[in-house]
UniProtKB/TrEMBL annotation:
Gene3D superfamilies noted in UniProt: Alkaline Phosphatase, subunit A (3.40.720.10), BPG-independent phosphoglycerate mutase, domain B (3.40.1450.10)
GO molecular function, one term: manganese ion binding
Requisite cofactors: Mn(2+)
Keyword set, alphabetical order: Glycolysis, Isomerase, Manganese, Metal-binding
Pathway annotation: Carbohydrate degradation; glycolysis; pyruvate from D-glyceraldehyde 3-phosphate: step 3/5
Name used for this protein in its record: phosphoglycerate mutase (2,3-diphosphoglycerate-independent)
Domain of life assignment: Bacteria
GO biological-process terms attached to the record: glucose catabolic process; glycolytic process
GO cellular component: cytosol
Pfam families: iPGM_N, Metalloenzyme
Reactions mediated catalytically: (2R)-2-phosphoglycerate = (2R)-3-phosphoglycerate
EC number: 5.4.2.12
């Protein structure tokens, strides 16, 4: 790898997306003379900031934290969302010792298992599949009995 003796600047613009479609595109339609000049006169590149390219499920939007982690690592860093999806798919999630121990302890004491979390398909801070997998894990350990659910 060659080392340049010329100064170089890495500029990361969180939330500054690139899309050629003009409709509903604030960045494209804004007057940005400095950015336009830099783009026309200086080397630049675009990087993917969502989905499989940053360790998230396909078509899942990223966020600044995901982007910074991947840039800092210089490689794809699989996010918790993706890791949990894989564990659920491969069924290793249901053998998680912390989860199984908590359910077994509650069952042995005749107590309820309370599962709390965000119930959303968004995948940004939570995913409903993960909550449902915890319910399934509890049901399995409780002998397959149905568990009552209470939603606000």
């Amino acid at each position: 790898m060659s080392v340049s003796k010329k100064p170089m600047v890495l500029v990361i613009l969180d939330g500054y997306g690139y899309r050629e479609d003009q409709q509903d595109n604030a960045i494209f339609n804004a007057k940005t003379p400095v950015m336009d000049a830099l783009w026309a006169q200086r080397p630049h590149t675009l990087i993917d900031a969502s989905g499989l390219e940053v360790g998230l499920p396909d078509r899942q939007m990223g966020n600044s934290e995901v982007g910074h982690v991947n840039l800092g690592a210089g490689r794809i860093v699989y996010q918790d969302l993706t890791r949990l999806d894989v564990e659920i798919k491969e069924r290793t999630f249901f053998a998680n010792p912390v989860l199984t121990s908590a359910v077994e302890k509650a069952a042995a004491a005749g107590k309820a298992v309370h599962i709390m979390g965000l119930l959303s398909a968004g995948g940004v801070h939570s995913h409903e599949d993960h909550i449902m997998a915890m319910v399934e894990a509890g049901r399995r350990k409780r002998g397959g009995q149905n568990l009552p659910a209470r939603l606000p």
